[in-house]
Design brief:
The chain has seven helices and two strands, in the order ααααββααα. α4 packs antiparallel against α5 and α4 runs antiparallel to α7.
Length: about 180
């Protein structure tokens, strides 16, 4: 299993940084928390920021060891909720802007995310999980939970797509002998 490398120079006296800490550093450098506020906004530029951020997170998470299966384990849960809360409820289109059960489901997603990251303990897994946790905070702060959740699903799908793009690009470089 890949472990963080010890720090060099005067800092070598300190303990190594955990994968979680390395992911948090990357997120601070990229201003992920601030960018998520923009990405979950209501203006036209928010959709572009959502795509840009998803691209960066998807590519970096792949580079740092996140696998498609790890994403899909959580993605399956979220897509089920999308079906339940955004599309149909009891044969009718669900119009309630703040379904109480959805709020509960989203809150309970946090422990599932932490478990997944702890179980796999790679920088890419922590980056993915911490990003989703910040996105969940944005969703839960919205006055219209349904719209926030719709944006969360869009963001999640975009991360998955860009993660797959990074995987295909990596495989192509390996075949061409460039990696």
């Amino acid at each position: 299993m890949n472990r963080p490398q010890p720090q060099k120079g005067p800092a070598s006296q300190r303990q190594r940084k955990s994968f979680k800490e390395l992911a948090q550093e990357w997120m601070r450098e990229k201003k992920v928390e601030i960018r998520l506020k923009t990405a979950f906004g209501d203006d036209v530029g928010s959709a572009q920021e959502l795509v840009n951020l998803a691209r960066e997170v998807g590519h970096e998470a792949f580079k740092q060891g996140l696998t498609t299966n790890q994403i899909r384990n959580i993605f399956g849960i979220v897509k089920g909720w999308e079906r339940d809360y955004l599309r149909f409820s009891g044969g009718q289109i669900n119009q309630d802007p703040n379904p109480p059960r959805l709020r509960q489901e989203l809150i309970m997603l946090n422990p599932k995310l932490v478990y997944a990251a702890s179980r796999h303990d790679k920088q890419g897994t922590w980056l993915f999980v911490l990003t989703l946790q910040n996105a969940l905070e944005e969703v839960l702060s919205k006055s219209n939970l349904r719209e926030g959740f719709r944006r969360f699903v869009d963001f999640f799908e975009a991360i998955l797509a860009f993660h797959k793009e990074a995987e295909v690009e990596s495989r192509k470089r390996q075949v061409e002998g460039g990696d």
